[in-house]
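Box S1 | Example of a co-folding query
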Amino acid sequence: MDVQSNGLFISFEGPDAAGKSTQIRLLANYFNKLNYQNIVTRDPGGTAFGQKIRKILLAKETNVAPITELLLYAADRSQHVYELIKPSLDKGIIVICDRYIDSSVAYQGYGRQIPVSLINHLNNIATNKLIPDITFLLDIDTDISLRRRDSSNLDRLESESSEFHKRVRQGYLKTARLYPQRIHIINARKPISVMHHDIKHILREKFKTLFSKNEIIAHEEN
Ligand SMILES: Nc1ncnc2c1ncn2[C@@H]1O[C@H](COP(=O)(O)OP(=O)(O)O)[C@@H](O)[C@H]1O
Ligand SMILES: [Mg+2]
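Box S1 (continued) | Returned holo structure for magnesium ion
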């Protein structure tokens, strides 16, 4: 398989404390070692404008209508694609994004129970149908991820009930079954280094042209 644009668009999904930030940091370091130009960004809040939206979204407001929340995520995502993700891919840069379209399907769709067809439609509008080349879903039992989190400082979505988080997990897994070519499930109970190894292995298998240079193998063995 080859990539859809010059760059490579990688998204990471999964609940809070699944290990997304940890794996993203390791992957970016790996690309840096290979001298592959890359950026790490996040959804929501990948642009200056989006930072403002992120603050509104995660603040402990009460009585936020589910559709208000959905539209704010879509607004953030639209700006993110327009200002940062698409221009970076067009320059041949690897974009690693912490959450993207599948988060809205899982949280606003399955979590808040807004029809998934509506979420998909909005995602298409917001992103101009820019879909990641590959997505890693860091999957973990809800009880474990809830325990791993720092419970003293939860944002508005993190504070939702455990039933909400269970629906989110099932929503993610259903989405992964729908798009098996794109979404790879990573067992987030494994040690950090094993997860990193699995992620690199999948990337190398899937994007052979990008990872065909011999020096990568050499790097791996060091
Ligand atoms: N594979 C793992 N096993 C055990 N603990 C982990 C693992 N990956 C991350 N952690 C720890 O769990 C917490 C959340 O990790 P983080 O990468 O911030 O998750 P996320 O970005 O998905 O919220 C951190 O304390 C991190 O050190
Ligand atoms: Mg994180």
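The beta strands are 8-13, 38-42, 94-98, 134-139, 183-187. The longest strand covers residues 8-13.
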